[in-house]
């Protein structure tokens, strides 16, 4: 029985390795962390992630937690959220933080970059309509700045509005005074962050597992 269970687990892990790019050892370590967070249950809830003390002072705490339950990040090709996730879904989200393997083609590298930026975009497109609106952008900037404790909410709002105007001028060019800017599309987002080193900077440490050190080349 034990050997059969072990073989099945190894087969399941190999399938997940093929789909995510993680090694079997990394998947084993992530499975241990999942079990710790879920208290050995088969599913993980928002409350389980909210219990991570390292997230307490993170201004993006809510967005990070919600990202694990966003169907768009679970490769389900649909909008909406789920209430709990299993280990496979947990691994799918974690794979967005995986560094690029050392030996990949430029096409593969660009695909990985787009996937990471899409994940980041989804964190701020909270209503899943394909656009980061002024209100969504303002909320994100306010949370980042106001929680720092150095400026007030109104100042943060003014900075967010000015930043959105700058984004509009970058993506749309000069706008008329009465022209309304609907928001940032994913293509705009790619343009804005075209020089941003997302491949090496997008990793997490709040799970007590530094994904920046996860080398996944085979």
TrEMBL record:
One of its GO terms (biological process) is cell differentiation. Gene3D superfamilies: EF-hand. Keywords: Calcium, Cell membrane, Cell projection, Cytoplasm, Differentiation, Lipoprotein, Membrane, Metal-binding, Myristate, Nucleus, Protein kinase inhibitor. InterPro entries: CHP3 (IPR052490), EF-hand-dom_pair (IPR011992), EF_Hand_1_Ca_BS (IPR018247), EF_hand_dom (IPR002048). Signal peptide: none annotated. GO terms for cellular component: cytoplasm; lamellipodium; nucleus; ruffle membrane. SMART domains: EFh (SM00054). It is a lipid-anchor. Residues 112-147 form the EF-hand domain. SUPFAM superfamilies: EF-hand. GO terms for molecular function: calcium ion binding; protein kinase inhibitor activity. The keyword Lipoprotein applies. It is found in: Cell projection, Lamellipodium; Cell projection, Ruffle membrane; Cytoplasm; Membrane. PROSITE patterns: EF_HAND_1 (PS00018), EF_HAND_2 (PS50222). PANTHER family: CALCINEURIN B HOMOLOGOUS PROTEIN 3 (PTHR46823). Belongs to the calcineurin regulatory subunit family. CHP subfamily. This is Calcineurin B homologous protein 3. It comes from Hucho hucho (huchen).
């Amino acid at each position: 029985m034990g050997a059969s269970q072990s073989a099945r687990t190894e087969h399941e892990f190999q399938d997940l390795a093929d789909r995510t790019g993680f090694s079997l050892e990394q998947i084993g370590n992530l499975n241990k962390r999942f079990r710790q967070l879920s208290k050995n249950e088969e599913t993980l809830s928002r409350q389980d992630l909210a219990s991570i003390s390292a997230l307490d002072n993170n201004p993006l705490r809510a967005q990070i937690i919600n990202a694990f339950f966003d169907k768009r990040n679970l490769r389900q090709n649909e909008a909406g959220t789920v209430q709990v996730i299993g280990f496979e879904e947990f691994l799918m989200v974690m794979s967005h933080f995986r560094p690029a393997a050392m030996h990949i083609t430029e096409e593969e590298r660009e695909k990985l970059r787009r996937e990471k930026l899409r994940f980041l975009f989804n964190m701020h497109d909270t209503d899943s309509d394909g656009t980061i609106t002024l209100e969504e952008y303002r909320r994100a900037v306010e949370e980042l700045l106001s929680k720092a404790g150095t400026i007030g909410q109104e100042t943060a709002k003014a900075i967010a509005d000015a930043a959105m105007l700058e984004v509009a001028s970058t993506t749309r060019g000069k706008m008329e005074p009465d022209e309304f800017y609907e928001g940032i599309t994913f293509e705009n987002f790619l343009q804005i962050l075209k020089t941003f080193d997302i491949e090496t900077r997008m990793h997490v440490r709040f799970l007590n597992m530094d994904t920046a050190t996860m080398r996944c080349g085979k």
